[in-house]
Structure of Protein vreteno-like:
Amino acid sequence: MDKLLEDWSQWNPMVLDFNNEHLNNYAEECGHNVVEKARVPLKPSDMLKKEADKADAKYPFLVLKKKVSFVTKCAVLNFFDQSHVRSIDMQANSDIFKVFFNDLGSLEAAHSQLEAFPQLMQLHRRQFGGEEKPKPKWVSDSADPVKLPALVPTARGDIDLSSRTIHVSTSGNRHPEFLVVPIVDATSYKGSSHLAIRDAEKRFLTVKFEYNLERYGAYVLEREYEDESSTKPVTMQLRCGRKLYIGSSDLDDVQRDVNVVDDESEELDMSGYKKCAVCNGYTSTVCKICDMPFCDAFCWSIVSMQHDKKCGTGQKVDINDASFEKLVPKCGLPPKRTLVKITAFEQSNVVYVRPADTLSDVAYNRVLVEVWKHGQTVSKLDQLPVCGQIVIYKFGENVVRAMVLNVDNPRDICVVSIDYGSVEYTDPGNLYQCSSYVSDLPRYATPVKLRGVPRRAVTPNLREVMYGMQGCSMTFELRYHTREYDNDNHMQRAVLIFLEYNRSINSLLKQVITPIEPDLSDPGLTEGILPHVAAPTGKNTDLIITDNSFLKYGIIYCTPAMLAVEITKMQRAFQDYGENIAKADAYAAPKGQLCIAKYKGKWSRGVSMELVGDGYPSILFLDYGNIVPIHVTDIRAYPPQFTYPVLTTEYVLMDLPENLSDVQVQRLERRLALGAIVTCDEIVKDENNNYSLLFKDIQQLVLR
């Protein structure tokens, strides 16, 4: 034993630990001890994934391995059936993924599915509620089978026509295009024409008429309007992008609704308020010296000079005509960030607005009253009007100022209501002479182009939204920048903000217009969701032939001549969806469901008629009538935003033989050519809503 120390004064109990290098872990030379680094906090997405993993831990799952590269969550969901699968954990760029099932029965059903169809994926391992189990005896421990090459969806085989039970079109004709004739062209602005004078900026050179379906009677245009303040029945009428109310026609009612000072307001309790010395509006703001009432800075600027001279003298300010001219707002584009009201929609992205402040409301309604008074005594036009001429346009109980835009058809004149902005076609008998005094009154309705909103044909959903924005009390804040002026269309690009909900109506309209590609696992849409518009039964009706490929069977597809251009308008939306929005590589539309399909390079809507397993479903193109086998790579799912009505109808030709020879079919194709305008002798509709056409000369043509 070592000799015990007798002098303990130099003993340090920490020296052994200090010299022990295992206990001295320094990060730097300065001697700071290493502190365990704090763990990096999880991202919100990782936290959600961790919580989801905990929730799924008690459910049985399979760990699977892909055999082909294009296996997606949607494909797995459809492979095992949605009713069995709880969730899928699939990482990008990984062939291994997990599938959680609702119970053990669902797990065993998945095993059976894998055994029956082993081409897409294979079992990697299975687990029950977080506890890994050994592989069953029936699972081989041998090496994984060789990975199969990915299926190539663009590989196109032969079309199987023998297995099809529905006839397909054999003509291969392109779909006819129906061009929209411009309402106004450059020749209307030549020289010193009326239109060149009235529309110096050539704004109406790009004007459009988007309400053919309303004019044709496809929609209900009048509804009962409940107004507690009215003692007479009021009808709300939707007319060419403008909402108006029909209740009474005498001048007293009109003046009561739109006059500057309502006589009934005298009966209200206005104690504490006085009438403004300028505009006669009620206000509580007065001069503390002379007690002169005024509304705001605008009214004060009109009388400030007179007030400074007469204040305290007992004299009242004198508002003469020169002073009142300052009160009348200037027409044109309202200033930025001012409140406006919508008077009409011309297109999906073009809207007419007017100022909504009190003074502008007064001036605008005064113009309407003057036009109404003038319209009671004017006489009809004694000759056909010319483009750019200002006329009085009467329809029903309404009297408005209108500018003539097109007179190509003397029985169908195109006019624009300059106090609202709505474009209409009317009989010349509804047009009356307009004096220079009325034609020179201010025009407060100004068009603006809604920034970011695409131009599309008006769907029923979009139509409801547009008319819903034209309430009497609905005001919007107008926002724009002068550098965004559209020089091509001579309009200011702008944004309208509905302040009550702090939302842009531009984004609302874009949301209604822009289609969203549905998930492939979502149930598809059927033709029943779309409204159908057919030609009315009767005699001597003009139709345009959209498809004649089934003349051999006595069937032809036609659309009313007036609505043919609407088919071409809606194709713009289908083309944009197929080229830029839909991202799926392929889609096999189930039988009876709608889809968007490409034919001859153009995307159109159709309905799947038959699938025979060759990769070419038979697609009936709804807007034309031909049936064509289309490869699945040229088919996309149908978005619910496309609610355009179906304007093409299937007709059975009457008085034709049951069996037609090829020569007879060729005669019919020349008589009923694709895209031709024909006048049928009669349209007949039976009790099952099936339509038939009668052409008296066809039987002689076939039998000769």
